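Figure 2 data, in text form.
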Amino acid sequence: MSSNPLSLLAWWAATEVASRSASAAATKIVHQKALALLHDVIRVLGYEAASIYEGDIRLRDPNWIYGVELTEAMVRFPLTRASLETALREVGTLQLVNEYDRIYLYRCIAAQKSAEPDRYLAAISVSPPERQAIAARLERFFRTHIDGVKRNDVEKWGRDVERRLGVRMRLEGHVLSADMQEQLAGALRSLASLIVGVKQREPDELPERLARTEIFGRLDKTQREALVEQLQANPPYFFEPPDLEPASELAGVYFRDLAKAAASCPPQAMPLDELLEETTHYLRIDAKRAASVVDQAAQEALASRYTPTATQRATSAAVARAALRLLDDEEQLLFVFEGAAAEGAQGADVPSHPLWLFGTNARLFAARVDEPQVVWIADGKLQTSPDGGRWVGGCRLTGGVWLSDEHRGAVALHVRGQPMRRYEKCFAPLLAWRRQEAGAARQSPTADEV
């Protein structure tokens, strides 16, 4: 090696690389351990501080809720050596706030005594993702260690867990759901409760609105006609999700129908985000897929609100959701312009929130989309003028009324144009709206003429 410089260089390079790799790996391990220690310290300090001001915070911890539910399962079903060992091991590894809580769970399991899970209101005190994680761990424990039990006992335990967690249970080999036609009937009944109970529509509207759903099309013809008549005669005014197999294809179909009904059925301004979110978690539908379904339903509902001649339309789901909340039920959209902004007087400070300009058959208004709110509305003094160059620029709107306190310093509304489009062509719908309103104002009788 000493007689070959290339071999010596290769040996030195390999040694250096190995040394640096080992050093980097050791540094990474040290950093991971330090972060884990810091996490544990912050967790302990946080819980101790919270316990001083709110003593029952430990009872809202997801680890505690899981431990209580696991203990309840051990009480409900016959003990085996394997299930007892696993349950004790699970309780022993839980990160509980108080070690006395762990001892309490040990004693409940040993004495076959319930830890009273109904006391802790898990559906309210624990976040939806944490409740889904608890349900998944209980299902895994059930599949692995619970066997030879009666179906009625399994169904009762599963229903009780679902009620406490607000999440559907998926127990293979012990189906908690009814047959397909009964599930479809329950899903249609739930959709009807949204229409008459939440949206407060008349029961006479049920046949037409339910006939638009995919769930309705899957029911047997004879059964669906009889069911709709029954729902008309005895409307379900209390909404609750149906008992469908969680994360199933049918659950996805039902949720699509639910999202469409929530977006399209008047009053469309009614916010139902919480209802849709709770249904998503209950049926254990993927959150991203559910959000996509809700967005698509909002866009389809808004598309039906445009006039046939509308050319300037919104493409964003966020704008669609906001527009549905801001429009009156009878309004039809003529155009939507993105990129509006308030313009202050010289030296005036006005908010820089992005605004959208909406033109309907009844009014012209600008609104925020992130927090749906009308901030400006046109009046009889509206004036429009080019703002910028002929080919690049925007439209300046003066007059109108600013409705938001934070925009009191605004004197005009600027709407951004599109590059390389002439002012007259880019803002043709807006200019046509102004001409029509001006003509209507001239034709209206004055006070003297009346």
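Caption note: Residues 5-53 form the longest helix (49 residues).
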